[in-house]
């Protein structure tokens, strides 16, 4: 599997990494059970920050595309191919679009929506969730 990161792309580096690993799984270039490099090794190979690779791995694990087996390493999840089509970002955007449309119909301004969103997000997470 060849991963190529474009540092000049508008797409965040962690997103590029997630997309490329999912594409490799979908194309059968990597199979369930195949090992992945450690976070440190992949970060070194791609000349990236460890935290960026760790974030990509967390998202892939959340989506059950990869699984971490403690000290033994990180592997492609048995259901990875089916799980590659899960797009939580698209679902979140759809939900937000529907909610924002309802707010606008009720006469709420975009500024009020932004302020309320930030307030609720900060209250529910106690700050940053990443």
TrEMBL record:
Alphabetically ordered keywords of this record:
DNA-binding, Transcription, Transcription regulation
Task: List each copy of the HTH gntR-type domain by range.
Answer: 11-79
The membrane-spanning stretches of this chain are: none
Q: Which Gene3D superfamilies match?
A: Winged helix-like DNA-binding domain superfamily/Winged helix DNA-binding domain
Report the protein name in the record.
GntR family transcriptional regulator
Please report the organism this UniProt entry assigns to the protein. Answer: Marinicella sediminis
């Amino acid at each position: 599997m060849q991963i190529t990161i474009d540092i000049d792309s508008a797409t965040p580096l962690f997103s590029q990494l997630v997309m490329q690993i999912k594409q490799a799984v979908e194309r059968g270039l990597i199979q369930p059970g195949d090992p992945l490099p450690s976070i440190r090794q992949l970060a070194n190979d791609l000349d990236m920050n460890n935290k960026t690779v760790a974030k990509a791995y967390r998202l892939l694990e959340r989506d059950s595309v990869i699984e971490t087996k403690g000290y033994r390493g990180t592997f492609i999840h048995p259901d990875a191919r089916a799980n590659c089509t899960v797009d939580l970002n698209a679902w979140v955007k759809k939900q937000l679009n529907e909610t924002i449309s309802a707010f606008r119909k009720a006469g709420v301004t975009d500024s009020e929506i932004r302020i309320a969103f930030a307030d609720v997000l900060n209250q529910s997470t106690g700050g940053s969730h990443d």
